[in-house]
Write a structure and sequence with these properties.
By secondary structure, the chain is of the alpha+beta class. 33% of the residues lie in helices and 15% in strands. A 3-stranded antiparallel sheet has the order 3-4-5. α3 packs across α4.
Length: 191
């Protein structure tokens, strides 16, 4: 959302899922009273289907494309991609996690970006505040990959009272929809 600088990220497994995710994004924006007037792309084939073009037309959204192989025409998009990937790499390296956890680090980077003040917004508000008109609550913000303890189920505790009452975990992401954290074992093989 260009006016608020608010970012949304949707992870996909196959490039063929882009059309479906884009349609869901546009529908969600409309239900939240943020209609999309223009959909800008790099001219990739995933946005050229008749179905997608009709969907945009039916929803009053125009399509604009940059010239192929001209990233300078997508300056804002290229810059924010560079910023988010730098944040993602830094968080993975700092946490000492394998690169396979990049998707969680990216979601965390977007979460932080949306809650950080932005110089191009009035009064240097955050994109979250500009988009939702509410000051974001930062109480649940913890460092990516930080170590914590998850309480064991009392039925699984060893008898005698001296056994571990929890296990070490690492925080991967904040699930804002469910007000929980996504975690993995300290040995990062199980999410």
């Amino acid at each position: 959302f260009e006016g608020s600088r608010h970012l949304t990220v949707s992870l996909i497994k196959k490039k063929s899922d882009v059309e479906e995710k884009s349609i869901l994004f546009i529908k969600r924006a409309q239900t939240r009273k943020h209609p999309l007037n223009e959909f800008r792309s790099d001219g990739g084939g995933e946005y050229l289907s008749n179905y997608f073009q009709e969907f945009l037309t039916d929803n009053g959204t125009s399509m604009s494309r940059s010239t192929p192989r001209s990233p300078e025409q997508n300056g804002k998009s290229e810059r924010i991609t560079q910023t988010l990937m730098s944040m993602t790499r830094s968080m993975i390296k700092h946490a000492g996690l394998p690169n396979g956890y990049w998707c969680y680090a990216l979601e965390c980077a977007v979460y932080i970006y949306n809650r950080s003040s932005h110089s191009s917004l009035p009064r240097q508000t955050s994109p979250c505040e500009a988009h939702y008109n509410v000051v974001p609550n930062l109480d649940n913000l913890v460092p990516f990959g930080c170590i914590g303890v998850s309480a064991n189920d009392p039925a699984e505790r060893p008898p005698g009272g001296l056994g571990d009452r929890g296990r070490l975990i690492r925080m991967l992401a904040c699930d804002v929809r469910h007000k929980t954290y996504i975690v993995c074992d300290r040995n990062p093989k199980h999410v």
